[in-house]
Structure formats: C-alpha cells, structure tokens
Design a protein that fits this description.
The chain has 17 helices and 8 strands. The protein is α/β, with parallel strands linked by helices. It has one domain: Metal-dependent hydrolases (TIM Barrel, Alpha-Beta Barrel), CATH 3.20.20.140. Helix 5 packs parallel to helix 7, helix 6 packs across helix 8 and helix 16 runs antiparallel to helix 17.
Amino acid sequence: MDDIQAFIRRLPKAELHLHLEGTISPATLVELSQRHDATPITLPEAETLYHFTDFTGFLFAFKAVCERLVTAEDYELAAWRMAQHLAKQGVVHAEVYISVGVIYHWRNPDPDCFDPIFAGLERSRLQAERELGLTLYWILDAVRHFPLDEAEKVFRKAAQLRPNSPSVIGIGLGGDERRRGSEPFRDMYARAKEAGLRLTNHAGETTGPEAIWEALNIGSERLGHVLSAVEDQSLLQELKTRSVGLELNPTSNVRTGVCPSFAVHPLRRYFDVGLLVTLNSDDPAFFGSDLANEYLLAHTEQGFTRDELRNLAANSFRASFLPASIKNSWLSKIDQT
C-alpha cells in the first residue's frame, strides 16, 4: 500500500473540481470563528458540522463555513492552506471554484465587494506559484437556486476581471439542481463565452440525465459530477463524441447520499468507454478524502492499475484550461513517472 501511495504522490496531477470553501478544515473554521463570532465555536462543534448524511445536510454545513469567511484575509488564509495541502499530494495545478454567488447573497449585494477578496486570493495564488510550484486558476461560481439577477452579477464580475486577471479562467454554476436547471442561464453562458471565459457546470449530481443534456445544450464545456449519465447510452456517446471533460467526485457522491459506494460509482464504466474522466475531491474537508485518496480508492475499490492512474492524471491536464504547451509538458512528465 505504501508503494502505491508513493506512486500517487509522485504522479503530477491537476484538480479541476475543488471548492475553496470546501477545503476549510474544522480547525481553520474554529480559527475563523474566533475572528468573527461573539461566542466562537469549539473544535468538537465544528467537527459535528462536518457530519451529514445527505445533500441538504451538506449545503447546511457549507453555509456555516461561508458565513465565517468575511474578510480578504480570511480568503487569503483559506487559499494558502488549500495550496499547501494540494502541493503535499503532488497536485501541480488546480482550477478552483470560488462561491461568489454566496458572497453576494449572504453578505453584500454590491458586486465590487468581491474585489478586495479577489486581491487576497491573488496574494495566495502568487505565493503558491512562487513557493510551491503550484499554479491556480479561479472559476467564479454562481448559485443556480438563488435569484437569477445574482447569477448575472457573478458572471459580469468574472467578465470584468478576466482582461487584467488571466487567473480568472471561467464561470461555474453550482447549487441545488433540483430547484433550477441550466436553461435559464443560456444567455449568461453565451455572454461569458464572448468575454473569453470558459464554461463549467454542475450537472446530474442530484438529477437525471436530462439535466446533463440541458447543461450541454447551453454550451457547457466541462461538467461536474455527471453521475446520472450512466442511465442514458446516447448521452454517454455524445459526451465521448464531444470529448467533454467530466469532473467526477466519487467520495463526494457517496457522502451526500447520491451514490451507495465508491465501488459502484460509474467512474470505471465512464473510463472504460473512453470518456474524458477526471478524479476530483470537490469539498475534501467535508468529505474526508483529498485527491490523492481518490486515486488510491480508484486503485483499491475499482482496480485501476498504475497505467490507468497515469491516464486519469493525463486526463486531468487534457481537460484543464491550461495552454496546450503547458499541458504537453505535464503529459510528458506523467509518462516518465
């Protein structure tokens, strides 16, 4: 076991579906609470928040964390600790979701309130590149079940930042699919594309394959979760034909109750039929499994060989939004691992 873990650690990897807020450990949450709460929560109380059995419970815990991310310094701290943990796993590049929709909805509706927060994120990004050799891109994430005008503000802010901040690579759409699909966001996605932003979307996590079709049909380039695609053979073929990057999150799906176990997750089937699948941790602090552990579980629970793990790592760069020259450089290093 130690040997395969060392191999996974050496393997250059990118993580493409990672929420900054979901990387905050209970200990860091206590630290943030001490900064902002009149009566700070204790570590046992924080740890209790992270125990849930369904998707609704997860959303409640996620909200509790976001409520204690207040200042630019809070975000800078969270981003730096995230970067340190990524580097320890052999992750060399990550494309990280920032829940800007949550900031606007719960804290401050002024679009410009994100600017100092973004400056804090950028300080940690530059430090990570300088000290850890880790590159980071930011994906500004809207919340689909909040009012549509709030999503508009997120997308506009991303378009505003993009020309002078190439680290703002794209937009995302998270939240509760059961309450709103993708079609209402068609025009926003079109405008984001015109602004040079890449288009991601959570789809088929708590809904059927029709939600994945809907996400594809509004122009989404890369899809998160896509758990229910396994139910629709024509959809699997379409995903393969288009070479759509799939951001799979097996442990996340198990912990939120939408998949019974890692062993039965469709990761293996998607991989075997030639889809562009990538492994990701989603919210590692909440789900108790980081990216290195997802690779280990792919090996122990679904029989992925070392060569297949190399292919998963290679897919993580192929599906990334990195320039082609950088992708090719990492692909050649994977071949030598």
